[in-house]
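Quiz preparation item.
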């Protein structure tokens, strides 16, 4: 038995695992694989280069294959578990989380109501009761609703509610009733179908009748189901008939809902239980860039390719790809899609990508998506609105989110909204950098080191960024503009010095702007180094060629912006040079995480200026094309003064270089 099999991976995948020379699962893999195989939603936070991609690709390839093969036992839908009476995870709002027993639920969102109904309703005659214990303080409402009613009970004429603030509600009319309730209070919900009455109790004290109800609620078609509604609160329900007795048993003539005669119970049923069709995809994996789409696709493909009968069909969906070809693949059938959110949402909205069978949604580098509030974050929201909570064959949706920098409010909020009791697989805490990455700072002080005056831009082969075109440069003075220009030249000199001093034969070099990247690429070439460049203005083909050239060793240096800093996995790269620091620590963690991967050592060198440096920050319409407005942005221009010393003080733990 291989080490991976001990964590639940099937022997069929061993061949692929050994083709990658993986002998033992990494720490994150040994926690994430069993969790995902066991059906959990997972938030995977582990250091850069720790094998997070394999941690989700392996179990997903396995589950998708088993489902297609029809050997995996799909969990029974609640309609099949006809004797178990519980809250119905197929009949709930998306952020009401229901645990495995179906008797505990929770909504952690502060400003939204999320509700659920039970999987049975009662009809005909008789007196029925169920009990609710408040487990987490917040707002909640409990009561009864028909299947046609809103899950926001009390807001229509199909549901009746009693809320924690001491109000009863029906048809959006809220009236004082009983007393308020809070954590540990036990509420009784009574429905008397013989006398058409609804009322509630609190800790055994019965309140008067709340509603005289219409006789239509006696009929099987429009009968009432127990229903609960939470906002930042949690509760436990007891329908009777289970192992726990009622805390406050109802009177002798009243029975728990679960004890109703079968002739009085209406089970919720899916209109039509449909079998899994074999053409619509089971999994989407979202990646932020085209490069990561390709990288993850290759990973999943490595595993999928060894699984036969049926073969797992994977496809990529990113900008620059041949859409006609992709549409043909989707039509003929596809199991796993790896793509960028914009493309995926586009196809869903135009009806070309069916979501009915989607069981897995994986969001890699989720914090980057959520930070892009008007772009990717919105697309992800749109995607989730289009996804069913359960697939066509009744399988619950599983959501997996990963990043080395997962700890932030937006991610927690996302988990509360879209994940169900997510398991945190958090190996090192906040913003973790592998112990195999050493990071150092090289101070750049153009007042102390005057060699830039001698060298100048042109003589070293570095192009002018023209940010100081309107300024008077007086070499030898400590004038702010002069010092800033000196910093730029000096950084160029230091890059070459570092490359030579450390005999770097492969390094990733990060610059702040696309223009800086282009100039650095040219500069390295002029100094007889092979270099390629990767940033958002390069075409898909150019980016692919650059990456391939760097991976296969044709190019020694890869110059890029932060846009492509994340996730890139190029083996055998020992060095990173930060020509300028990024704005935030998270991005720094991802940049330096390009080295020190898979337990190899890495060194990151950050050139940090001792003085402020003037840089382009284009606010203009052209986004910099032909822009010559070198005024500060506070004066309507397109430049900023960037203070690396201050930035670094805020977040970088460094050693001296
Ligand atoms: N079990 C394993 N044994 C040996 N190497 C592994 C194992 N799992 C993954 N790797 C290798 O480790 C490297 C990093 O893996 P991966 O790209 O999944 O890291 P990551 O955690 O996603 O990093 P990042 O946060 O930068 O995206 C890859 O080259 C991968 O092939």
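Solution:
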């Amino acid at each position: 038995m291989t080490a991976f099999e001990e964590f639940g991976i099937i022997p069929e995948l061993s061949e692929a695992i050994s083709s990658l020379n993986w002998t033992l699962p990494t720490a994150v893999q040994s926690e994430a694989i069993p969790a995902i195989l066991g059906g959990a939603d997972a938030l995977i936070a582990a250091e850069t280069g720790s094998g997070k991609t394999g941690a989700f690709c392996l179990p997903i390839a396995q589950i998708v294959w088993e489902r297609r093969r029809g050997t995996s036992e799909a969990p029974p839908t609640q309609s099949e578990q006809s004797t178990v009476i519980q809250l119905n995870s197929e009949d709930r709002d998306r952020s009401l989380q229901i645990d495995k027993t179906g008797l505990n639920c929770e909504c952690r969102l502060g400003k939204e109501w999320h509700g659920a109904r039970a999987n049975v309703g009662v009809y005909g005659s008789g007196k029925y009761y169920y009990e609710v214990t408040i487990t987490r303080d917040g707002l909640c409402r409990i009561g009864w609703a028909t299947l046609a009613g809103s899950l926001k009970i009390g807001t229509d004429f199909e549901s009746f509610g009693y809320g924690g603030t001491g109000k009863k509600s029906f048809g959006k009319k809220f009236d004082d009733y009983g007393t308020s309730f809070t954590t540990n209070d036990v509420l009784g919900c009574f429905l008397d179908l013989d006398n058409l009455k609804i009322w509630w109790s609190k800790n055994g004290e019965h309140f008067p009748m709340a509603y005289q109800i219409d006789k239509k609620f006696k009929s099987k078609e429009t009968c009432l189901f127990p229903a609960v509604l939470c906002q930042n609160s949690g509760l436990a329900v007891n329908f009777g008939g289970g192992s726990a007795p009622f805390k406050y048993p109802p009177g002798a003539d009243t029975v728990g809902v679960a004890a109703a005669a079968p002739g009085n119970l209406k089970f919720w049923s899916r209109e039509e239980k449909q079998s899994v069709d074999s053409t619509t995809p089971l999994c989407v994996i979202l990646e932020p860039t085209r490069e990561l789409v390709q990288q993850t696709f290759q990973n999943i493909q490595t595993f999928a390719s060894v699984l036969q009968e049926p073969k797992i069909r994977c496809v990529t969906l990113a900008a620059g790809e041949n859409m006609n070809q992709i549409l043909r693949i989707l039509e003929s059938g596809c199991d796993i899609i790896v793509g960028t959110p914009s493309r995926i949402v586009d196809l869903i909205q135009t009806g070309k990508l069916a979501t009915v069978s989607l069981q897995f949604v994986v969001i890699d580098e989720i914090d980057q998506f959520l930070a892009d509030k008007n772009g990717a974050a919105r697309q992800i929201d749109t995607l989730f609105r289009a996804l069913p909570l359960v697939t066509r064959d009744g399988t619950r949706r599983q959501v997996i989110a990963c990043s080395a920098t997962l700890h932030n409010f937006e991610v927690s909020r996302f988990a509360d909204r879209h994940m169900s009791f997510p398991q945190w697989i958090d190996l090192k805490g906040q913003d973790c950098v592998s112990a195999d990455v050493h990071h150092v700072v090289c101070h750049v002080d153009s007042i102390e080191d005057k060699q830039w005056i001698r060298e100048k831009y042109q003589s070293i082969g570095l192009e002018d960024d023209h940010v100081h075109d309107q300024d008077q440069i007086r070499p030898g003075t400590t004038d702010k503009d002069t010092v800033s220009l000196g910093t730029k030249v000096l950084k160029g000199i230091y890059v070459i010095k570092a490359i030579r001093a450390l005999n770097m034969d492969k390094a990733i070099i990060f610059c702040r702007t696309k223009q800086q990247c282009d100039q650095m690429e040219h500069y390295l070439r002029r100094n007889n180094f092979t270099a390629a460049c990767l940033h958002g203005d390069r075409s898909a083909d150019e980016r692919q060629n650059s990456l391939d050239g760097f991976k296969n060793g044709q190019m020694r240096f890869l110059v890029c912006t932060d846009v492509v800093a994340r996730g890139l996995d190029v083996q055998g790269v020992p060095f990173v040079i930060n020509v300028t620091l990024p704005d935030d620590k998270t991005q720094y963690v991802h940049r330096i995480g390009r080295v020190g991967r898979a337990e190899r050592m890495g060194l990151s060198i950050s050139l940090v200026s001792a003085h402020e440096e003037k840089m382009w920050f284009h606010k203009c319409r052209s986004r910099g094309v032909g822009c010559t407005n070198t005024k500060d942005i506070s004066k309507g221009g397109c430049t900023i003064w960037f203070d690396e010393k201050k930035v670094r003080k805020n977040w970088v733990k460094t050693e001296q270089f």
